[in-house]
């Protein structure tokens, strides 16, 4: 009799649909739901991101304006130096350097801060039942606010050293949106790996510092590519291997009124597709483990 009841119970268990709690944590549905729920809680991550900036400059007289001032001082000092070293007019090199620094600040901070996005939010992750993507959007929003503050330097330089701009300047808007979308998957992937392996954050910081010198920020790629020495011009083309260069150029070219090289957009588009495919795999497989790793 007991065996019959056990058999009936087992059969009924197999026939009924699985409960939501019984679905494997490695679920594509849960991965997309995590992103969808995080986007829906816009007020939460937007408020947290703004509070991060306010907390950083708490009790400061001018507050977040220090972001703009520090960027202006750095760009001016390096612009005066490198314009003389490379023999370029200050009116051309200073805006070029400024846009490069502003965009690189966003990209570099997404990678560096992204490596600790979950580690630094250990308390919230353990106490607040929220999607993992909340912390990614919080960090991304904070970097967008930093970018907006630094953008003031660009407009000041545009007033001091006027550049002929055309309708292509509007391409800077989708270009920055594309950079931000890539910043999100970078934060998610690097943050998840760094949470599991705590030796990764120092490695990412070293890589970002190295890539800063290998990316045309303080030096002009077009100047080296058009060098009369064919050996130098040929080696300059190796910069195309650097993916950071393509993201930098899709926004710097329209902001400076330079001709648009569309192959940069194609490379960035391909990186976006591949990067988000990797991010979704990471989110599907390891989303549920983040709270245990922190």
From TrEMBL:
One of its GO terms (molecular function) is ABC-type transporter activity. One of its GO terms (cellular component) is plasma membrane. The chain crosses the membrane at residues 61-82, 94-111, 144-161, 167-191, 203-221, 262-283. Its main location: membrane. Residues 46-255 form the ABC-2 type transporter transmembrane domain. It comes from the Bacteria. Keywords: Cell membrane, Membrane, Transmembrane, Transmembrane helix, Transport. It is a multi-pass membrane protein. It is found in: Cell membrane. One of its GO terms (biological process) is lipopolysaccharide transport. Belongs to the ABC-2 integral membrane protein family. PANTHER family: CAPSULE POLYSACCHARIDE EXPORT INNER-MEMBRANE PROTEIN CTRC, INNER MEMBRANE TRANSPORT PERMEASE. This is ABC-2 type transport system permease protein.
């Amino acid at each position: 009799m007991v065996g019959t009841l056990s058999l009936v119970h087992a059969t009924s268990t197999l026939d009924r649909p699985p409960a939501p709690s019984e679905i494997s944590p490695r679920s594509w549905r849960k991965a997309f739901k995590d992103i969808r729920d995080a986007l829906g809680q816009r007020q939460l991550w937007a408020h947290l991101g703004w509070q991060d900036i306010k907390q950083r400059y708490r009790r400061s007289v001018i507050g977040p304006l220090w972001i703009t001032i520090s960027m202006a001082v750095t760009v001016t000092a390096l612009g005066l130096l490198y314009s003389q070293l490379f023999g370029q007019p200050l009116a051309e090199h200073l805006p070029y350097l400024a846009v490069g620094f502003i965009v690189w600040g966003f990209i570099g901070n997404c990678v560096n801060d992204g490596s600790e996005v979950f580690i630094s939010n250990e308390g919230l992750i353990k106490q607040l039942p929220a999607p993992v993507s909340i912390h990614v959007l919080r960090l991304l929003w904070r970097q967008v606010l930093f970018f907006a503050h630094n953008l003031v330097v660009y407009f000041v330089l545009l007033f001091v050293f006027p550049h002929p701009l055309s309708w292509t300047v509007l391409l800077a808007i989708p270009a920055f949106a594309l950079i931000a979308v890539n910043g999100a998957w970078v934060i998610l992937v690097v943050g998840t790996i760094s949470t599991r392996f705590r030796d990764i954050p120092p490695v990412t910081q070293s890589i970002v510092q190295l890539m800063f010198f290998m990316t045309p920020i303080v030096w002009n790629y077009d100047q080296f590519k058009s060098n009369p020495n064919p050996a130098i011009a040929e080696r300059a083309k190796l910069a195309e291997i650097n993916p950071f260069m393509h993201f930098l150029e899709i926004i710097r070219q329209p902001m400076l009124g330079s001709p648009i090289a569309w192959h940069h957009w194609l490379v960035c588009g391909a990186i976006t597709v591949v990067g988000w495919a990797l991010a979704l795999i990471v989110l599907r497989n390891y989303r549920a483990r983040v709270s245990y790793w922190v």
